[in-house]
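1st attempt posting a full record on here, be nice pls
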Amino acid sequence: MQGMYGTYQHSLDAKGRIFIPARLRDELGKEFIVTLSPERCLTAYSNAAWDRILENINSMSRFKQKQARPLFANAVRCEPDSQGRILLPQSLRDEVGLVKNVTVVGVGDTAQLWDAETYTVIEEQEKAPENINRMYEELDI
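the predicted structure (as tokens):
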């Protein structure tokens, strides 16, 4: 796996389908999991990344495992159609405010699906020089 990166603009169609860019589909695989994120977006996990999450959760106490319930209750298995689109359930779209314009962002071993306007605001904050400097320091680059 080379990792997912880049920012892509797409629109939901009338049926709630979104195009997943080929570069990201290559990393996610023929089938992948989409669920809620800690942020106001959806996150797509390859099967390998999802398996790592399962391993981590299975090693937790039962009490902590209960806290992961929303992650599983809102997870859907997605398989892109011949045009590279996946169907996002209305409940997930509503939860994170996906209505029409969607920004798809590659983030390491996952892809995130954001409402385009929401992402624009967050991206401006994250691109601030002090945040970029802090990230470089953290990565020791």
